[in-house]
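Lab notebook, bench 4. Continuing the backlog of folding jobs that were queued last week. Each job is logged with the same field layout so the records can be merged later without manual cleanup. Today's entry covers Protein kinase domain-containing protein, a 662-residue chain. Filled in by technician R.K.

JOB TYPE: sequence-to-structure
TARGET: Protein kinase domain-containing protein
LENGTH: 662
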Amino acid sequence: MSIFIAVVGFLAWLPASMASTSIGLPNCNTTCGDMSVPYPFGLSPGCYLPGFDLTCDGSRNPPRLLLGDGDLRVTEISLWNATVRVNGTAIRMAKNGTASSVSHARENISGTKKFRSSHGKSRGLRDGGHFVVSSIHNDLVATGCNVLAELLVAGNNNTITGCASFCPRSRWGRTILHIDRKCSGIGCCQTSVNWNLTSYDVRLRQLEESSSEFNRLKLVFIADQTWFATVWGELLNFSAPRPTRPEMEVPVVLDWVSGKVGCDGACRSQYSFCYNDTFLRSMCRCKQGYDGNPYITNGCTDLSIGLGISSGAVFILAVLDGILLTRKVKELRKKKQKQKFYKQNRGQLLEQLVATLSQINHRNIVKLFGCCLETEVPLLVYEFISNGTLYEHLHVEGPRSLSWEHRLRIANGTARALAYINSAISVPIIHRDIKSSNILLDDSLTAKVSDFGASRYIPVDQTGINTAVQGTIGYLDPLYYYTGRLTEKSDVYSFGVILIELLSRKKPFAYMSSNNDSLVVHFVSLLRQENLVQILDPQVVEEGDIELIKDVANLAAVCINLRGEDRPTMRQVEMKLEGLIQGSRKPAPESTVDGGSEENAIPMNSMILQGRGRQSASLYYTCATVTKNIGRKSTLQQQVIEMKDRDGGIIHSSSGRLSFSS
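JOB STATUS: finished
OUTPUT FIELD FOLLOWS
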């Protein structure tokens, strides 16, 4: 009874002003329909910081909140995260799209003036604004069959990132859609947005003719990851009716640009502080134990005294009981959700993988410190590497990039890391997503392999495992893509693509030759024609020794052999590169690659190129269809079928027309 009286007395002592807290400046409207407008945002002059003006469109029912005086609709404002959620646009390819069709549009999120582009419809705000498309909250997504989606720097054709979506066909010509929980490249693809952008171009290209009933499903958009995680099933329901409009709205998360608001005098509440996040953005937050708006005077209030005044003892007890019950329910729900995410993220398997990786101490592998598997997306914590990725260094604007010497060192370091995880540790690990953006560089340009989120370990008594296909189109082993069989040779193929990327400075996921060949197919074709200089980076030709370049090109060709058993191991690749870098160019026996045992022999005539003084009529591959069929433009899938048929194997649902080369 005494506790109850104390509670009642304490609540009665609170000033009435504590019952509600303002979110804006005095005499300023802070609502638009059902949307709240907290300061530093505002609807009228004097009610917002410069650049944070919003418009309330009262002509709609209910009223719509717009960013600036543009037409981007605001659906959520988060002071804590310093983000704004707006409705962007999904671009849809015309229903009669052909293999040469391209849909191209521009989005500008940086200011308040609408503009038009010759490439398509554009919308947005004035340049020099405070907002960028968040690189950590959004993904580039494309849906449809046999399409390539690209995110481009606004105003030119420089690709920032991209992904491809394919739909294999059965022997009866029916499109096969075995879509899993992720956009892995079958009917849908999804990739992160690498940069914080104020404006960008998106492009959707048709790679190959597809069934007419799926033409209307070709979409490309940048969208909030959390939104897409909840609607992907509906979007990818190919039997569901589609909207007739060429565009649809999708939510996009915008970050406040660092330094635009800052903390110099912006944090006005007594109980607020200036917070700098890992992306060098400054924002105001309420101190621990306080909640509210840190940008206004007395905006942060003590959570412990946030209860309102009540005149009824029964009501007060009910409120207290309700709070305790609600807290308990939330805790149980949170625990259940963690268990769900743990199971969804293959928690036990990833735990074993992380336990192994965290024990690795290798100069060419990023140190893994730990993981969190109880979130919707598993989080892996790595050491910080300061000098960016190989992708960023290779594909910078301008004529010159990494020197040829540095490229060789990076290739050797990457090979050393892959050889180590493939064969030198007690439980071999397959990385499964080797690409230039997963190779980090330190200040001395030493390669550090990172991002083991897709990795799988292979039991020591097995040569491979059957698993769901995961990786990045352009780098992905085609044999693994079509059969689901993952082996250490899958990493070898991806490394071969890295070598081609280092030689050519072309992007494997976006490159398309004049004959619509992918980078790998075009590289092999030119190598066969002894015309490799056509695709080489001019800087490589200028700085490198021609014989050494040929050796590296031949090594890349062997790594991308269609048959996994005809590829070298990463250990053999490492030894070959070591020898090349050290200048050891002594002819090896015709039956092996440096140091290879007889049972793992790689035919040396598969590494012959004009100018070496040896027989060079043509390149030899155990799977001859790789070179033989280039002239007749056969698909990789057909080559896989021919190879398996020759060996008496069967691949179900893989006799369609999906092509990486057309």
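OBSERVATION: The first helix runs from residue 2 to 13.
SIGNED: R.K.
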